[in-house]
Amino acid sequence: MAEPTGDIGLIGLAVMGQNLILNMNDKGFTVVASNRNKDKVTHFLENEAKGTKVQGAFSNEELVAKLKKPRKIVILVKAGPPVDEIISQLVPLLEKGDIIIDGGNSHYPDSIRRTKELEAKGLLFVGSGVSGGEEGARYGPSLMPGGSPAAWSAIQPIFQATAAQVNGEPCCDWVGETGAGHYVKMVHNGIEYGDMQLIAEAYDILKRGLGVSDSEIADIFNKWNTGVLDSFLIDITANILKFNDDDGVPMVNKILDQAGQKGTGKWTAINALDAGMPVTLIGEAVFARCLSAIKEERTRASKVIAGPAKEPFKGDKAQFIDDLEQALYASKIISYTQGFMLMRQTAKDLDWNLNYAGIAQMWRGGCIIKSVFLGDITAAYTKNPQLESLLFDDFFNKAVHKAQPGWRRIIAQAVLWGIPTPAFSTALAFFDGYRSEVVPANLLQAQRDYFGAHTFRVLPGFESDKLQPGKDIHINWTGRGGNVSASTYIA
Hints:
Elements: E1 8-11, H1 15-26, E2 31-34, H2 38-46, E3 55-56, H3 60-65, E4 72-75, H4 81-90, E5 99-102, H5 108-120, E6 124-131, H6 133-139, E7 142-147, H7 152-162, E8 165-166, E9 169-170, E10 176-177, H8 180-209, H9 214-224, H10 232-242, H11 264-275, H12 280-293, H13 295-304, H14 317-350, H15 356-362, H16 373-383, H17 394-417, H18 422-434, H19 441-452
Parallel strand pairs: 1-2, 1-4, 2-3, 4-5, 5-6, 7-10
Antiparallel strand pairs: 6-7, 8-9
């Protein structure tokens, strides 16, 4: 048999798989393409891949035989059992040191499990987040690989050449151990939910509040896209708002107001609850989609539940729009602050070594949340890799303080109009809670101890024989209760 010439194999010829193969081919790598439906391989070779160096494989045995060692095989299929099925088919055909790469949207616990299972068999596993949609896959996505560290040197040249480039730097670096790659992609998607919800709320305020036309709103977004909000999502939002149907009506006005979701935002919110981290903005973004889904119930409610009488805006319109830009910027800072807090906590819990400056760098290009703003996050974590919170960084601290007056005015006005701002509002609530040395949790603890003997701890300076410092204390609040406290546990 001829000497194998394939640099990397890829199983799964849907749009992402095909575009990633063509991208790798453009960068000089020989890719072996495979798919469960063999006709798809033939069609790809005779059409999209015609005239390229792409090779086809019509069985797993042929795929493995065409790859140089260590063999590197990317799986791009639906997450869950299909990934495990393909892995089980490949394992008997591979040798020690060969690498299986899952490039789908897998849940990170699956990647943790797969890393351990394959390493026990002498193989290496990489779970890589891939962001940027079909255009990103074709011309340069954000790639977030994690898993078996020994695999990185073998896949690094291919991955970093294939990824998007920003100022000569690839939007790809090694993320961390076991499931870290898919974990960071999950948080990326959660942040994406938050960014999209914030933009939608800004659009709603301009449209329903100020009464601005879709075309004018597009102009506002285009202007914002030249400043601190310069990003892919702001850019495409302006384009969407300018797009009219054949009858001249903006297409966006013909779209049913029910948002779908594929689960990664929900996974992020669940992970935040499990980790005990207040990632409130992503949570509200997920719930906003859930609220949008009950369209028929909202329609019935709109007929019987009255809000405030709509008063025309009498203030300075230009100032209001500037305030809104600052409110969006400040809320975005809070969302990313929360996302990085969550990653830090999970890294601590799972003993991962995450490179936060590298993660922000990976997100600067190629992906859905790419923005100028991420360069500032990269700078913050480059300056201080152990940064506790973005709000402790001078740049972001000053930015939030500058935005604060307008941020508060926008939310106050939206409340008076009766326009819901779950993401804007929770961002400000988090900000005010985070900067509060004292919050009313003392009363919560008193209530818990009163009705359930759940105990409390005493503040420094109030110690006594009855109130011992550092001890879990139960008080007989009514004189009728006992002195036995409940077990302490975390649900």
